[in-house]
From TrEMBL:
The chain crosses the membrane at residues 12-29, 50-76, 88-108, 128-148, 187-216. It comes from Hydrogenophaga intermedia. This is nitrate reductase (quinone). Dimer of heterotrimers each composed of an alpha, a beta and a gamma chain. Alpha and beta are catalytic chains; gamma chains are involved in binding the enzyme complex to the cytoplasmic membrane. Its main location: membrane.
Length: 235
């Protein structure tokens, strides 16, 4: 068990991150026409609209919330909020966002499974990744009672310490030895999602972040054809 624990939380994160980055680059280089999320908006548009909006709003909040919460050093927020209060804030905010995301994903999953026309046009990987995300959300909601029972903030500090140790290439799985099982399974499945990312429809997330570059691009100068004619006549 010690060997498995060390592999899952000391080695497996780097395996997943390597495949995530290199696999995304390879897919963009070799299969650019698959770099998309297949649309089925002509079928059950109302359920799609509700499910997609709830899912994306919830998942974006959870993603950035996890990133900021786990990767922000303790000394940064210590003057403003205690670990216990930060953990309670994460439970409340994450719980609300998790429920919103769970409802949206359930609508999307129900739509793909129980509508025969959508099911026939869906790839197996589409259903597979939706089911994995659904299970991951369930595990995240299961961890909430465990977090509330450890209200001193120790759980938050241990998870943050592990995440920051991975990012700084000094992995320390020892802080997770006594962690409750839902947290461990949640972490492993979360890393597995990064491992599967390049091989699924999730790659379209990169395109979503890439559109932010349009905010920074310079204005495009467009000259009218009429102005061009006047210019030639003047010459």
């Amino acid at each position: 068990m010690n060997t498995l624990h060390n592999f899952l939380f000391n080695v497996y994160p780097y395996v997943c991150l390597s495949v995530f980055l290199m696999g995304s680059l390879a897919r963009f280089d070799r299969d650019q026409y698959t770099w998309k999320s297949d649309s089925s908006q002509m079928l059950r548009a109302g359920q799609l609209r509700w499910g997609s909006n709830l899912f994306h709003a919830g998942i974006l909040f959870l993603f950035f919330g996890h990133a900021v919460g786990l990767l922000t050093p303790h000394w940064v927020y210590e003057p403003f909020i205690s670990p216990a209060n930060k953990q309670m804030l994460a439970v409340v905010a994450g719980g609300v966002a998790g429920l919103v995301c769970f409802v949206g994903l359930t609508l999307l999953l129900h739509r793909r499974i129980f509508d025969p026309r959508i099911r026939l046009t869906s790839h197996r990987t589409d259903l597979f990744i939706l089911i994995i995300l659904w299970v991951q959300l369930m595990l995240g909601l299961v961890t909430l009672p465990y977090s509330i029972s450890h209200s001193d903030g120790a759980t938050m500090l241990a998870l943050s310490h592990w995440a920051q140790s991975v990012v700084t290439f000094r992995p320390d799985a020892s802080v997770l030895v006594d962690m409750d099982w839902p947290f461990k399974v949640h972490l492993v499945l979360g890393m597995t999602i990064f491992l599967l990312f390049p091989f699924s429809r999730l790659v379209h997330v990169w395109s979503g972040f890439a559109t932010l570059a349009y905010v920074l691009r310079p204005y495009q100068v467009v000259r009218s054809r009429r102005l061009g004619l006047h210019t030639r006549e003047d010459r």
